[in-house]
């Protein structure tokens, strides 16, 4: 038997692999950071063996909310399914008998850099879309921005970004669904949206961290979603260049797409705590939430994060900084690593497919609110 993680988004270190019923591994820390959570690895040579894989540092992870969580597995890296998993207080234990000689295990279905490049390449073939390279990451990779719709000063400016935290791969699955629907000229919702608005879409804010197999950090060890007040061109160029372009275009709506390790629900965060929070912003937020609940049964607002006290919002967080900076509707979208407890799927849990469908559904919400954004 052999375990490897020397590939795009891979992360694991082997402690012991002599006995299939006592395989021991540990998660490597994020690059230049102490964050610790994401894993993705390949097991070879265990076909037909009842394997017990222990992730020995699970209790020391950044977010050890393992209750109700099940690891995803795949034989072909296309179809991902959940496997029996439990947490004993110290170890996260995977119990699985592989049906083939090669099997992959991950925290969530990875969205690889190759797939990202395919998404960008496919999108740019649309007559509605222009690809713009707005800067480089810490390690010199392109920061890709898709501009959808003909720029016009009278149109709404809508920014949608994802994967500031690279291990939250469901965010780019969400973006894939959203982008392909938005570029579908036979879809009446998309046609109306591109008549009314121009979209600035960054499907992956943290390409370096994604490739390295990080949960929250870029290659310099920075948590990008804490860099928005004073972005550093050298240490957090991903935020530096995106925020600068936002200043150039203006923003009427910003959606920042994430995943949450603890809560088994889809929800959004609002801007209650920003200094310039107004009744107008509150009403826009509530309309957005109410419309999405009607459109997608996968979305809810009963469970989520506690609201900030008035004037106490952290302005280094994207949605808060953008909402304050542009006096606009600006929210963070959160999806689960576990499952949607309101509509559980015992085979896949929360999945790439459902993430993509949720991404598609939000376009109906954006259309419904578009005329009210200013």
Structure description:
This protein has helices at 113-124, 170-182, 188-196, 207-212, 237-249, 279-295, 318-326, 352-370, and strands spanning 2-4, 13-16, 23-26, 40-44, 51-55, 72-74, 81-82, 85-87, 92-96, 102-106, 129-136, 142-148, 156-162, 197-202, 253-260, 267-269, 329-336. The mean pLDDT is 97. The longest helix is centred in the C-terminal third of the chain and has 19 residues, at 352-370. The strands form three sheets. It has a seven-stranded mixed sheet with strand order 11-12-14-13-15-17-16, sandwiched between helices. Strands 1-4-10-6-7 form a five-stranded antiparallel sheet, with no helix packed on it. A five-stranded mixed sheet has the order 2-3-5-9-8, with no helix packed on it. It is built from eight helices and 17 strands. It is globular and about 65 Å long. The N and C termini lie far apart (60 Å). 26% of the residues lie in helices and 23% in strands. The chain has 374 residues and is of the alpha+beta class.
């Amino acid at each position: 038997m052999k375990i490897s993680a020397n590939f795009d988004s891979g992360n694991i270190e082997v402690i012991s692999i002599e006995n299939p019923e006592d395989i021991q591994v540990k998660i490597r820390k994020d690059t230049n950071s102490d964050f610790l959570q994401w894993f993705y690895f390949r097991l070879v040579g265990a076909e037909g063996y009842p394997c017990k894989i222990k992730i020995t540092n699970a209790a020391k992870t950044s977010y050890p909310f393992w209750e109700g969580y099940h690891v995803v597995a795949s034989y072909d890296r296309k179809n991902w399914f959940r496997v029996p998993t439990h947490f004993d207080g110290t170890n996260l234990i995977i119990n699985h008998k592989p049906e083939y000689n090669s099997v992959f295990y991950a925290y969530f279905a990875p969205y690889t850099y190759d797939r990202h490049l395919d998404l960008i390449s496919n999108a740019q073939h649309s007559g509605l879309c222009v690809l713009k390279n707005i800067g480089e990451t810490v390690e010199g990779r392109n920061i890709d921005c898709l501009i959808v719709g003909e720029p016009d000063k009278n149109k709404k400016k809508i920014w949608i970004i994802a994967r500031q935290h690279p291990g939250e791969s469901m965010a780019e699955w969400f973006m894939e669904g959203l982008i392909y629907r938005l570029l579908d000229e036979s879809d009446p919702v998309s046609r109306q949206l591109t008549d009314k608005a121009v979209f600035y879409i960054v499907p992956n804010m943290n390409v370096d961290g994604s490739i390295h197999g990080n949960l929250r950090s870029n290659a310099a060890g920075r948590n990008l979603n804490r860099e928005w007040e004073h972005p550093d061109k050298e240490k957090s160029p991903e935020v530096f260049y995106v925020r600068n372009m936002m200043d150039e275009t203006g923003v009427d709506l910003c959606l920042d797409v994430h995943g949450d390790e603890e809560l088994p629900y889809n929800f959004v965060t609002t801007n209650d705590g920003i200094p310039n929070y107004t009744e107008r912003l509150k009403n826009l937020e509530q309309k957005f939430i109410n419309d999405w609940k009607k459109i997608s049964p996968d979305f809810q607002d009963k469970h989520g994060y506690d609201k900030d006290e008035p004037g106490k919002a952290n302005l280094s967080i994207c949605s808060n900084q953008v909402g304050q900076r542009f006096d606009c509707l600006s929210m963070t979208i959160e999806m689960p690593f576990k499952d949607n407890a309101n509509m559980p799927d015992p085979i896949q849990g929360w999945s790439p497919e459902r993430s993509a469908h949720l991404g598609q559904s939000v376009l109906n919400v954006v259309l419904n609110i578009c005329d009210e954004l200013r």
